[in-house]
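Weekly structure sync - notes
Attendees: PM, LS, DV (DV joined late)
Agenda: review two folding runs queued last week.

Item 1: First target. Sequence and structure tokens pasted below for the record.
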Amino acid sequence: MWQYYFYVRDQDWGRMFLGICPYFPFNARIYLNQHEWLARRLQEEGVFFRKAANAFVQCSNPDRLQQLADSLT
């Protein structure tokens, strides 16, 4: 099955991509990277962190990181 992928850089969510099937029933999926969203929120708040791929390996305010992560429902 063929899929077309479009890579997008959103102002709020950061990097994401869309997967669209060109055949009936023409479904589409949006793949969001929640770690990227968390990193953007922390940057906005001035919280120091370090990431390795999709893992937060260091954070100056881990409680705030946890609060933001819990807000993703």
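Item 2: Second target, run right after the first with the same settings.
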Amino acid sequence: MRTPLLSCLALLGLLGACDGSGSGGGPDTVAPVDTVAGDTTPLVVSALSAAPTPGNPLAVRVLWSTDAPASTALDLDCGADWIHHLETSGLRTIHEVFLMGLWDGAQCTAQVSSVTEDGAWGGGTVHFSAGPLPALFPPLTLQLRDAARMQPGWTVFNLSNHYDKVPLLLAVVDEEGRYRWIHQRATASSGAATSVDVMDEGLLVGGTFDTGRIWPALIDWEGTVLWERELDMHHDLHPLDDEAWLWLGHADGCPNDIPNGGTVNRYDRALDETTWTWSFCEHYLPDPIFKDWDHLNAVLPFPGEDALLISAKNQFALFKVDPSTDAVVWRLGKNGDFERTDGDGLAFANQHAPEFVDDDEILLFNNGVDDVERSGAVQVRFDEDAMTYEVVWSWYPEPPIHAPIWSDADRLENGNTLVTFGRRGEDLDSHIIEVTPDGERVWQLSTPKKWGWYRSRRIPPLAPGIVKD
């Protein structure tokens, strides 16, 4: 059986004994196997090896056999920042440990040991290296790291580059900007507007129609696709819990200059079916109608309330929807139902990735308008009784960075904000910048030109591995 990785993630990768299997890494050298006998016949350990992982050279599978059923234990040493112990007490003769979270060039030693029920012991040592990275993965530049003030953890994102026809890439990097987990989707599309969320089992990856069809999928840490469906979805696949997800799709019959309109859908994973669909154009029509007016890019539940918040990019507005009646309750933004009390003009435009930071406060990425080449993070507070709103916090980098598409803003546990500037252009790079509440940069990671990311998430460091039980 398999047990979830939630406990390992929560431990910030310090110590794990999780169930699973896998494959891994670089060249290996096996040391002679040592066995020790107490009052019993020594346990024979054989076939000790570290096997390469197809597609992810930052992971290794360590295998060995014992001539009698015994426990499985492994001590991993890849240097001062990656020393771990993994074990399970179940008895078996074939032992398998999947190790992950390695980095390009890591030199590691794994000491394995097994003990039978009556105390016979056997063990051995295997040496291996991680990498090299596949050529498809671009070099990333860590421009700033203030370890004392940044939110500890690693960062997960997608990578896209349609100029060089690179397929969709997924990655996790550590605080130093080193790749620690990678995956390439089996598609020819770059998958630009693809959301990525972390679940116990692995990564929940959205689909996209941006540059070719990509189906949404759930991918475990060993790179196995656990779930994949031909769902008509784009931009946002939002997990409500382990079994219910919200996703954005298309609908026929809407007045628009491009095929299909925007829909919100609730998918039940246990039933493997869509249980609710809401079509934007059936409940709201702008005046005038224009191309791509119903472009939706985010959906999420209101905290403590049966309602949904929907981001309509080209309306420069957020909509509250009551799923029990399908009615639009209000619109916040351009030509909306709320009066701005802290100034004139648009608080945001072409926005992406809204999230609640309080019951009445929303953080989002303000992409801005094309004639004002400035983008950044904006936090608004709204009052549903007075129907007013105000900007209570914002951050725009200097010199300005304009990200007219994609991008993200996430509030971190320590109060900092992770701001993702995703850009697409042959002469443009992309950035993920962590800033304090006072607007000081404490971490910044950048891509080469041509490369972009849609969103990013700060997560606990990955567990060191999975022990097959």
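Discussion on item 2: The longest strand covers residues 60-77.
Action: LS to circulate a short write-up before next sync.
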